[in-house]
Design a protein that fits this description.
GO terms for molecular function: potassium:proton antiporter activity; sodium:proton antiporter activity. By secondary structure, the chain is mainly alpha-helical. It has 33 helices and eight strands.
């Protein structure tokens, strides 16, 4: 085809794409449905003008449309990676992990069940071989992300429902395409009845190979992109290449699923990108991919719809019965999974509850689209597939897709409304009324100041003020007469708003480079945990998430074990430095929250709720300060180095702001501004480097701060530093049990523990020790020791402790004091001189 005609068709399609969005909004129909209808009309019109004898003037245009080089590989290799990759970048993975079980059930189990259900139903109702029937089942089993996501995002549906639908639509393409590849091979080889077990046995290999390929490709791409941090366009260009290289590499080199590779690459970049790439570059990367995905989604729909008239050529009356079989079998299989398997998984406590209205909406929201048409087109293009199989694949897949788009897609909004999923809860409705009343009061104050500033006409001001006052009075009365919100609900809503504001503050700080890119992901994760904890369990959930944000995790304890047992200190050094920086970032963010509580929260929820939130915030501040102080005591001087680094980053940000303001005011030219910014960029790169943490040196400094070791010489301190091992424990962890063998003495570097001996409890803090009495006097009553705060313990084995005891008078005095406190004769513990 002439290149000019191709460009003309493409340009015309972009005009259609631009007109489709306002048309969809005017008709209140899903955007994807409008695109499909327009594509069908264009394709049908082209066929009509070619066949009609009314005029030949439009024949060149019609021939260009029908002869447009649309092949299945264009959909699968060009458009599909773009859609899948952008969808993964835009996903909130932390929130989606809460529903990973229902998402995986719908994305994998439902696809396999639908493939088998449709396949065996068609084998019973038609003369097609089983392999061909299963191939059709695989083709129609995938819900299309470009069809489903756009519809649910345009509806006032609950966010959780949208997340489940989006997660399913994103991941089930991989499962369906993998099954499609398996059964396509059987059809092309002419095997009448495939061995289903051997076919499905290859399925995990395709999934695992694709996931590994995508992960490796993303890690390499992130490494390259981090090298291009100062060159934003180069960084974004690498991200554009990533999904296509992952797809092609997985399909052609590994022989695995390219779709899974793209999804894995996108998920990896989603998780690691914010912490490795500059904040502004990451934001712009997301915007670029949003535009690419918008174009790809629209083109894939409209180009696929152009094929529908050709795919339906030669349709027979009996084919409509087979389309009905596909519809019934597909819906029945989906209903069995949603209303049979998922409640069973919930009963077995494997899956969170998915409410019945949600499941009904998911059932009706399983739309098919361009992916189904592209797979059907791939079959019709193959020369090795029997003609009758190609004909029925094209007709059944197209007919089922049209049913889901034109019937389900156009009625989905009504179904959501009928299920009551587009309405706020009574609490949210009451809260919305109160928010309106508070907002209007603020607006009235601002408008009054505006009128004074601009000296407007009194009559105009008076008339408009009266109209606005009437509206304000109605809003206030409506809020007062609305559903009475209990304090418990107000607290929950206030905590959700507070955690949301904290997340927004973190994003601002990351953008300003006050919080480093390294800490961006972890701080945002902690904020999301606070939101989810408050949403699910109110105050207790919020407090639990707050404690978890400062606790020592499993990874930290594993790093401590590697350092203590094998001398591998690098993981512990990195995690300790991360913990320092994380706590400093949390402290910085928490200081901005009290203003939000005093302002917004107090005006909406009242003084009692605001005071309670301030109390909860103060407890969080204490948690963070305690954890930070513990690290300061354990690693003196390092926190100060990080704080100096923070000050340097802040001064650079302020310096950049001044240069930008001077450039905008015309005080400096472009050449001077560019030179200044280049120098600023180099200094910023130096400021981003985190100071090194030497655990061995820090431990020696820490030992000197223990009064117990005050009389040791330098050589003894060095020997002790090598002998001591570090152990990190969370609040609530049992350090020693009464019946466990005691082989070590513990020194508290930071934190606190509680001892229980014969029903009596006591507490020890920094610089104290425990375990020494039981070691020196085996007949002494044993204690159970539990950490009551995140604590760092220095551990010394029995032999070295006894040797140290003979050399340290201060340590002997401490042992005598602890013995007297427990009513034990000190002379029975220490050897006589």
């Amino acid at each position: 085809m002439d290149i000019i005609l191709v460009l003309t068709v493409i340009a015309s399609l972009f005009i259609v794409i631009g007109a489709a969005e306002p048309l969809a909004a005017k008709l209140r129909l899903p955007y994807s449905v409008i695109l499909a209808l327009l594509g069908i009309l264009i394709g049908s019109g082209a066929i009509f003008f070619l066949q009609t004898e009314l005029t030949d003037a439009l024949n060149p245009v019609a021939e260009a449309i029908l002869g447009f080089p649309i092949r299945s590989n264009v959909f699968l290799y060009v458009f599909l990676p773009t859609l899948l990759f952008q969808a993964t970048l835009g996903m909130n993975l932390r929130r989606m992990l809460d529903d990973w079980v229902p998402i995986m059930v719908l994305a994998v189990v439902a696809v396999v069940v639908a493939t088998l259900s449709v396949g065996y139903a068609l084998a019973w109702a038609s003369a097609l071989p089983l392999a061909a029937c299963l191939l059709i089942g695989a083709i129609v089993s995938t819900t299309d992300p470009s069809a489903v996501v756009s519809i649910f995002r345009s509806l006032s549906a609950p966010r959780r429902l949208s997340r489940i639908i989006e997660g399913e639509s994103l991941l089930n393409d991989a499962a369906a395409i993998a099954l499609f590849g398996l059964f396509m091979g059987f059809v092309m080889l002419g095997t009448p009845d495939p061995e289903l077990g051997s076919a499905l046995a290859q399925f995990p290999v395709l999934i695992a190979g694709g996931a590994l390929t995508g992960w490796l490709a993303a890690r390499v791409a992130i490494w390259i992109m981090s090298l291009f941090g100062a060159h934003e366009l180069a960084l974004i260009s690498v991200s554009v290449a990533l999904p296509y290289l992952a797809y092609i590499g997985s399909e052609q080199l590994v022989g695995a699923s390219g779709v899974i590779a793209v999804v894995a690459a996108g998920l990896t970049l989603n998780l690691m990108g914010p912490g490795r790439l500059p904040p502004q570059a990451w934001k712009n990367l997301g915007e670029v991919w949003g535009l690419l995905a918008h174009w790809a989604g629209a083109l894939i729909f409209i180009l696929a719809a152009l094929l529908i008239p050709r795919l339906l050529e030669g349709v027979r009356f009996s084919d409509f019965a087979l389309i009905g079989v596909v519809i019934v079998a597909a819906f029945a299989s989906r209903a069995v999974v949603l209303f049979g398997l998922m409640p069973l998984l919930t009963f077995l406590k494997i899956s969170p509850v998915v409410e019945r209205p949600y499941r009904a909406a998911i059932l009706w929201g399983g739309l098919r689209g361009a992916v189904t048409l592209a797979l059907a087109l791939a079959v019709t293009e193959s020369l090795r597939v029997p003609i009758e199989v190609k004909r029925l694949v094209g007709i059944l897949a197209t007919g089922f897709t049209l049913f889901t788009l034109l019937v389900q897609g156009t009625t989905l909004r009504a179904v959501i409304g009928g299920l009551g999923l587009d309405r706020l809860s009574p609490i949210d409705e009451a809260m919305a009324r109160q928010v309106v009343a508070v907002a209007l009061q603020t607006v009235r104050e601002d408008v009054a100041r505006t009128n004074e500033d601009y000296a407007l006409s009194r009559d105009v001001v008076r008339s408009e003020a009266k109209a606005f006052g009437d509206r304000l009075e109605i809003a206030v009365k409506t809020a007062e007469d609305s559903y009475d919100i209990q304090d418990k609900d107000r607290i929950t809503l206030g905590l959700i708003a507070l955690a949301g504001f904290e997340r927004d503050t973190i994003l601002v700080r990351v953008h300003e480079r006050t919080i480093s890119a390294r800490m961006a992901e972890q701080t945002l994760l902690d904020a999301d945990r606070l939101i989810e904890g408050a949403r699910t369990s109110g105050r207790s959930g919020y407090q639990q998430a707050a404690r978890k944000s400062v606790a020592y995790g499993k990874t930290f304890r594993a790093a401590g074990m590697l350092h203590g047992r094998f001398g591998l200190s690098k993981p512990l050094v990195r995690l300790t430095a991360d913990r320092f920086e994380l706590l400093l970032s949390q402290r910085l963010t928490l200081r901005d929250l009290d203003t939000f509580i005093e302002g917004r929260i107090r005006r909406i929820h009242g003084r009692r709720v605001a005071d309670l939130l301030l109390e909860l915030l103060s407890r969080r501040v204490v948690l963070v300060e305690t954890a930070l102080e513990g690290l300061r005591l354990q690693y003196p001087g390092y926190a100060e180095e990080l704080e100096r680094r923070f000050i340097r980053r802040t001064t650079l940000r302020l310096e950049e702001r001044e240069y930008t303001a001077m450039r905008e005011d015309g005080l400096i030219g472009a050449e001077v501004y560019t030179t200044l910014m280049q120098g600023l960029t180099s200094r910023r790169a130096e400021a981003e480097e985190r100071p090194a943490l030497d655990i061995a040196v820090q431990r020696a400094e820490l030992i000197k701060q223990f009064p117990l070791f005050a009389d040791l010489d330098a050589k003894a301190v060095r020997q002790l530093g090598r002998a001591l091992k570090t152990r990190y424990v969370n609040a609530g962890t049992v350090v020693l049990r009464k019946d466990s063998p005691l082989t070590h003495v513990f020194f508290i570097a930071s934190g606190a523990v509680e001892l229980e001996i014969a029903g009596q409890t006591s507490r020890l803090g920094r610089s104290d020790m425990f375990g020494q009495v039981a070691i020196l006097l085996t007949s002494a009553p044993r204690a159970e020791v539990r950490a009551i705060a995140p604590s760092t313990l220095l551990v010394l084995d029995v032999a070295r402790f006894r040797s140290l005891l003979t050399r340290s008078v201060a340590l002997q005095d401490a042992v005598r004091a602890s013995a007297k406190q427990r009513g034990i004769d000190p002379n029975s513990l220490l050897p006589k001189e």
